[in-house]
Design goal:
Elements: H1 2-17, E1 23-24, E2 28-31, E3 37-41, E4 48-50, H2 56-62, H3 74-77, E5 86-94, H4 96-99, E6 103-108, E7 114-119, E8 122-128, E9 134-137, E10 145-153, H5 156-165, E11 186-188, E12 191-193, E13 203-208, E14 211-224, E15 227-238, E16 242-254, E17 257-269, E18 272-282, E19 299-307, E20 310-319, E21 324-327, E22 338-341, E23 344-346, E24 348-353, H6 365-377, E25 382-385, H7 394-403, E26 406-410, H8 422-439, E27 445-449, H9 454-460, H10 463-466, H11 471-496, E28 502-503, E29 522-523, H12 536-539, E30 545-547, H13 556-562, H14 578-584, H15 589-594, H16 601-612, H17 619-643, E31 650-653, H18 676-684, E32 688-694, E33 698-705, E34 711-721, E35 726-736, E36 740-748, E37 760-768, E38 776-780, E39 795-798, E40 807-812, E41 816-823, E42 835-837, E43 843-846, H19 856-859, E44 860-863
The structure holds beta-D-mannopyranose.
Beta-D-mannopyranose binds at residues 188-190, 388, 414-415, 452-453, 523, 547, 654, 665.
Length: 869
Amino acid sequence: MKSTILKCLLLFFLPLTGLAISFEKIPVERDLNSAKWQFRKKANNYWLPAKVPGTVHTDLFANNKIPDPFYGNNEKQLQWIENEDWEYRTVFPISAKEIGQPHIELQFDGLDTYANVYVNDSLVLSADNMFRSWNVDVKKYVHEGKNKLLVVFESAVRKGKAEAAKLSYVLPGDEKVFTRKAQYQYGWDWGPRFVTCGIWKNVKLITWNELKVNKVQFIQDSIINETAYTRFEFNLVSDFDGEVTLSDYFSIPIPGTSRRIKCFERAMLKKGINNVTLHCEIPKAILWWCNGMGMPYLYQMQLQLNKGDFVLYKGIKDVGLRTIELIQDKDSIGKSFYFKLNGVPVFMKGANYIPSDNFLPRTAKYQYQEIVRNAVDANMNMLRVWGGGVYADDAFYDACDKNGILVWQDFMFACAMYPGDDHFVNNVAAEVIDQVECLRNHPSIALWCGNNEVDEGWKNWGWQKQFKYSEKDSTTIAQNNAALFNYLINDLVKLHDGTRPYWPSSPSIGWGHKESLLEGDSHYWGVWWGMEPFENYEKKVGRFVSEYGFQGMPSMNTMYKYGAFKTKQKGLIHEDEYVSDFYGHRIDSTIFKAHQKHPSGYQTIAEYMKRSYKVPHKLEDYIYVSQVLQAEGMRIAIEAHRRAKPYCMGTLYWQMNDCWPVTSWSSLDYYNNWKASFYHVKRSYKDVIISVEEKQDSCNIFVVSDLTKNENGELTMELFDLKGKLLFSKTTHGVITANSSVVFCRFDKSLIKNYNINDLVLKCSLKSTDNYISDAYCTHYFTSVKNLNLQKPNISVTFDYCEQVQCFTLETDVVAKNVFNFIEGESVNLSDNYFDLLPGERKNIYLPRMSGVKNFKKKIVVKSLIDTY
Ligand code: BMA
């Protein structure tokens, strides 16, 4: 009563004051995560406290019922969990006000996976897809006061196996392909098997009256004379027939000030589902650019929907103005494959991102932001969200939007063949719609891709023979998958987004076929899987290389954390019998093996190491060299890809990160320690690089530029012996040509005729004489690293350069190869590492800001490759 009088008074007086007033009637969302949750193994007679969002594994661990799943060999003894059913329950209150609302909904943003949900003992929902969100009206099941909520998870493994048994043939991928659940949970060649379950995203109670907005899609129609013509498409459900107004407020920055703009429109609603549009013109449009190309500018749009004086919806959307195209033009070699951002061809530099953890709810927002910050630090402009994991967290995409990291977005299917029954297909369709509608407003998303290596697997991995398919079954399987990836998902993406390209399967052609280098995207695994030499990276360059990689071991610290050592002493390795001795004395062999998921991973590392490096005897040296080896492989590949621009227009190495502590292809380990490869990637992804291509009589000195403007530059080649004596020097002036790769000058190999190549290094440095860019730099050796006559360096560490920041400076008397610095007992990523240092150079190394490291000056350790001999 009181509030009605107040409202009348305000409505009467406020127009006189010129101020507008409105009242809110927007849906109220109440989070049920923090309600007291409990869980139990189904039919157990006791309940334990649980965390929501969470997983059953992390809940069991938190209750001391199981040991840390990532520690030692615990994975093995925890496999029983996947075969059980698990129950979660809570009690939540409903107030008198809430019960009076016409709509009371329960919303699960994610249930992993087969879940029956009961409200006050009534079944309200049966969920069967981890990648969908679930919303049910529970009005008729709830009452004022305390209400019971129970979620029963059925074993996904059992369910999957039951589905598999219904088919007369076996699908590659076993039981996991029947379940719409993160496929890596079933184990991968870098990940453990933990087929978990749980309420893995938020749970909410939503009450509303009159109107609820389901989705808002932002569409950029065109940009003409700097004005962007855009619209917001609202999908909403209304309880009334009548008029509403839609509005959007945003600012446009004008130097020195900022102008507020309002877009406004009326719409007539009918009871039920409505689609309404708000058009919006943005003058002086500022475009969104990816890292390296410009600012990733975002407009903050304040949306509102009113019915008279009542606000029925309020929302803030960050939107970016940009166009993205995938260009596949026929050319003399095959077909191009590159992205145009705002009409400009962009060479994509990035990596494949896998889920940050096996137990996803424990990855915090800041960790997603950190991954993206790392990508920016390493000069990347694209990440691929790989299809065997999950559609990433909102925090990940938000960070990509803000930092200009484009996303190659796979749908979650990988390395297997999927069923084609109606239930499965309809479930996938609902998932695709959910995900596309959720992600389409992110300017960072550049491409939708149907799956990872489904096509490649079917055509090249011998499944037909392995599973002894009849012709009929083989046809059915192929048709089912074509229907899914070539038609269903393609059509749904067009319908629910329509602004981005769709690519059915990555790669489009398997690496065993020469056509894979002529068109489409390629996964080149001749190195590693094919045991081909690193040099083949230079010969096998695809049009867009979306996968290639090499393993490197994680740091000693990480190995300590997962319990690799029997004692805290250092291990020993002997070159020829590295396996047994590696495992034998101090490393626990079973644990060490358990944290390497590739069947012959350690052997493959050892084989490649033998080819190029002297194999060290001490474990910590072995780890360091394994990382340097990985880094060198990635450097060779990336430089070859970039030199081949514009033939090749993208390079995404495998893999950015880890989901647990393991030896894998990752460049950042589970604890976010940068491996040597990440430092090399960062150097190789700089806007401008120098890259040496050795030929018979000369070396081509390439300058590759991703800049959008030409610059004048001077490139100096200096030949040194490894003691540091300068033998030859030449400077060439020329143009650093924008967005291209050119041979800037040549180094004549007759100059090294009179020397022993094992004693030589060629240093190339480039300076922009226009001063726009930072300098580019590279070193080149004329033989395998193991042949080099490296000299023992005296590396000095001084501190006079730095004042405000923690930093130190290195100098050397002779050529120091792969200088590795670390702060004893600390896990900090230094600004640079594993680089070559030549006499006359001063290298400043920074600790991360606010590293929290005390007395760092006393704890710096510096070594280089010769220290492992
Ligand atoms: C790629 C990926 C993954 C795998 C990796 C390393 O092709 O798609 O399936 O983990 O190879 O083997």
